[in-house]
Amino acid sequence: MKLPALKHEKIGRKTMKATYMLKSEGRRISVEVLFKPVKTTRLRVFPDGRVSLTVPTHAPERWVWDVLEQKSAWIARKVALAEQQRTGTAELVRASGIVVILGTPLRIELSHARPKRVWVGNGDGKLYLQSPKAEDSAALERQLDAWWKKTAALYFTQLIKQWYPLLGREEQLPAPQISVKKMRTRWGSCNWQKNKINLNYYLFRATPACVEFVILHELAHLRYPKHDKDFYAFLDRQMPDWKTRKTTLDRDYTTAL
């Protein structure tokens, strides 16, 4: 059920502001809607988690709600990513915060019990963290971090095995070794001479389609070390929609870096 706009106010000669409350992914999200003399809409989620939607001056309220409903899952994911970026792991766990894994927001459920375990619920939108040291922030952070790296590495390795045969070189060299590490400016890197690929710890937040793009991009460097026409021709052949996937990755997940 939709909630009505909370308040309308004039904030400039030609600008009106309204606050809408959107319910998505089990949370209420405040959206600041700016009615301005523009021709197109603009939806933004800022690093501090604020959500802003700019719409034409005379946009009907029903139309505004339709826009917000259509983008509700995207908004919830971006807000969760911003929260995950701002808040330390231990604080997220204690506050039953939300983490994003493979594009899906999951609420953390902490329990004080043995043995140490972390697992994703079966369709319930939760990430379960069980620990005998639930009061120890450093221990919780180490446990979740170790699980994240291990699970991401397993997932990335599975995709490497799936896409590697497309290179047509598996008879000469085995599939590359991979490592998962926190990188500040890259989603991945490839050392073709050592047959090794590094993948970003935070890539595990992106959707499977985006992860596949990064995997294929780095694999391609094993055959085409430079970003030349042969490299891009290979991407075009093997993944015709790679540009769309890259756009989604850059637009929706760059704040994770």
Which descriptors apply to this entry?
single chain, 257 residues, alpha/beta, Zincin-like, five-stranded mixed sheet, 7 helices, 12 strands, 37% helix, flat
Residue-averaged pLDDT = 87
Counting DSSP E segments of at least 2 residues, the number of strands comes to: 12
Count of helical regions: 7
Strand percentage: 25-35%
Rg for CA atoms: 22 Å
Distance between the termini: 35 Å
CATH superfamily heading of the largest domain: Metalloproteases ("zincins"), catalytic domain
Tally of domains: 3
CATH class category name of the largest domain: Alpha Beta
Low-confidence stretches: none
Overall body shape: flat
CATH level-3 fold name of the largest domain: Zincin-like
What would you say this structure looks like, in words?
By secondary structure, this protein is α/β, with parallel strands linked by helices. It folds into three domains: 7-78, no CATH class; 79-134, no CATH class; 152-256, Metalloproteases ("zincins"), catalytic domain (Zincin-like). It is built from seven helices and twelve strands. The chain has helices at 61-70, 72-86, 89-94, 137-163, 208-223, 229-238, 242-253, and strands at residues 7-12, 15-24, 27-36, 42-45, 51-56, 98-101, 104-112, 117-120, 126-131, 177-181, 188-191, 196-200. A five-stranded mixed β-sheet has the order 1-2-3-5-4, covered by helices on one side. It has a four-stranded mixed β-sheet with strand order 6-7-9-8. Strand 11 (188-191) and strand 12 (196-200) form a beta hairpin. Helix 5 crosses helix 7 (242-253). It is flat and about 70 Å long. The mean pLDDT is 87.
